[in-house]
Design brief:
- It is a single chain.
- By secondary structure, the protein is an alpha/beta fold.
- It folds into three domains: about 190 residues, Rossmann fold (3-Layer(aba) Sandwich), CATH 3.40.50.720; about 100 residues, Alpha-Beta Plaits, CATH 3.30.70; about 90 residues, no CATH class.
- It contains 15 helices and 15 strands.
- It has a seven-stranded mixed beta sheet, sandwiched between helices.
- The radius of gyration is 22 Å and the shape is globular.
- The protein starts with a helix and ends in an 8-residue tail after the last helix.
- Bound molecules: flavin-adenine dinucleotide.
- Flavin-adenine dinucleotide binds next to helix 2, strand 2, strand 3 and strand 14.
């Protein structure tokens, strides 16, 4: 069926028009699910025809769980955690996401269901209102990222990373994928690293190509990217890695936690703009993929039941973080603050304790759980395995924030009144 005809059929049967700002993973996932549920979708972004800027990685089982297994490119069984004392093969499979394939397939899903794309920027509330009226949109999903449309959210904590895609002289220089290498770049000289640690993430891509990234996991005042670049270069030189060519550079400034912008009437924020980033890892792709279907289902159902304007947006907002998930997220936020307080030896010791737990336990900490209890259980187990300085830190910070933690656990005890469909 030609697209125009299909669009009319969809529109006649359901009638809901959705305007989606942004065509990163968040925008395209939301748009695909809305279109498949019968909404007429217009995606508006300046870069509708351009590839995504970021490189994405994910745990294979998480991609499979959200129906995106087809987007996995290279996979690595047993990615490594390295510290000065340990070299662990983790019992889980990690993969590189083929961003271009995923972007193309989401785009096909949107267009096959009558959705369309327009290249434009919506700078602020006034421009949004004009676009909404022109497109007769019943709902706006704003996935314009950070900073995105103005007013935007305020980043509170950052992850900074300097990445390079390299062609090496020796194909065997990176025999395994390194998820986190917390060894100091130059063990004898790195006093600065001790105070402000960063780790190496390295994806060997075959044929002597490797993507390497020096990452400061989380900080309120992150290290400048040139400091991380210099560290990466010293680290590679120290390891004796011989570079034939630097093929690409990735500059990563990722807001790990945000103070959201005040909600705009009739608008649901989504993706990075809505703070849908894991507070301790910075991952968000699979989270957007998990939330997009329930968001789409709820707003289409709400529209069919007569909800309009702000009422419709409120239905959508309630599906971004469910009441069941909120306490676990608060606990993860606490965990992120603990991580941000560690020096180099402490963070290496923490991840040793964390990743020597069974994979089923640490896996719970890397996604958004529907209850704080499994997280608390894992935190207690990490605490028992950690050196005394880390245990003291955890207890001191826990005591300082006891009211917040008690509230999270109390909320975790309440049965969730809402459904997650
Ligand atoms: C370098 C980097 C690497 C990352 N790696 C991973 C990873 O490996 N795994 C993972 O899970 N997560 C990763 N993340 C985190 C997260 O997945 C990304 O930030 C992801 O891109 C967020 O998707 P998004 O669609 O919400 O926002 P974005 O990808 O930022 O997309 C925003 C979109 O909105 C558009 N836009 C901006 N302003 C406007 C405007 N005013 N009007 C209209 N459109 C606008 C932009 O052009 C873009 O199309 C990474 C982040 C960064 C920065």
């Amino acid at each position: 069926m030609p697209n125009r005809e299909r669009r009319r059929t969809k529109s006649d049967s359901h009638g809901m028009h959705a305007l989606v700002l942004g065509c990163g993973p968040g925008g395209l996932l939301a748009a695909a699910h809305l279109a498949e549920r019968g909404a007429t979708v217009t995606v508006l972004a300046p870069d509708v025809d351009q590839p995504w800027r970021n490189r994405y990685g994910a745990w294979l089982d998480e991609l499979q769980a959200v129906g995106l297994a087809g987007a996995a490119a290279e996979t690595w069984v047993g990615p490594r955690l390295q510290t000065p004392r340990r070299d662990l093969a983790l019992d889980r499979t990690y993969c590189r996401v083929d961003g271009e394939a995923l972007r193309a397939s989401l785009r096909r899903r949107i267009e096959a269901n009558g959705g369309s794309f327009r290249a434009a920027t919506v700078a602020d509330d006034a421009a949004l209102e004009r676009a909404r009226v022109a497109l007769r949109a019943d709902l706006v999903v704003d996935a314009s990222g950070v900073p995105g449309r103005s007013p935007g959210p305020t980043p509170v904590r950052w992850q900074h990373a300097w990445g390079e895609l390299l062609q090496l002289r020796d194909d065997g220089a990176f025999p395994a994928m390194r998820l986190m290498d917390w060894r100091p770049p130059e063990p004898e000289r790195d006093t600065m690293w001790r105070a402000r640690p960063s780790f190496l993430y390295a994806m060997p891509l075959g044929g002597g190509r490797v993507f390497v990234e020096e990452t400061e996991l989380i900080a309120a005042h992150p290290l400048p990217l040139d400091v991380l670049a210099a560290r990466l270069h010293r680290r590679l030189a120290h390891e004796g890695v011989e570079i034939a060519e630097r093929l690409e550079v990735e500059r990563c400034r990722l807001p790990m936690s945000i103070r959201p912008a005040p909600p705009t009437r009739g608008v649901v924020d989504f993706g990075a703009r809505a703070g849908m980033i894991h507070p301790a890892t910075g991952y968000s792709l699979t989270r957007s993929a998990a939330v997009a279907p329930r968001l789409a289902a709820a707003v289409v159902r709400g529209f069919a039941a007569g909800a309009r304007g702000e009422d419709l947006a409120a239905i959508g907002r309630a599906r971004i973080t469910t009441a069941a998930e909120a306490p676990g997220l608060r606990l993860l936020g606490f965990g992120a603050d603990v991580l941000a307080s560690f020096d180099g030896p402490e963070i290496a010791a923490f991840f040793e304790a964390f990743f020597t737990l069974p994979a089923s336990a640490w896996t719970a900490m890397l996604s958004v759980p529907s209850s704080p209890w499994p997280l608390a259980h894992v935190m207690a187990r990490v605490d028992r395995r950690s050196p005394a300085s880390i245990r003291r830190r955890l207890w001191r910070m826990g005591w300082q924030r006891r009211n917040e933690l008690v509230a999270a656990f109390a909320a975790g005890l309440r049965p969730a009144a809402e459904e997650n469909a």
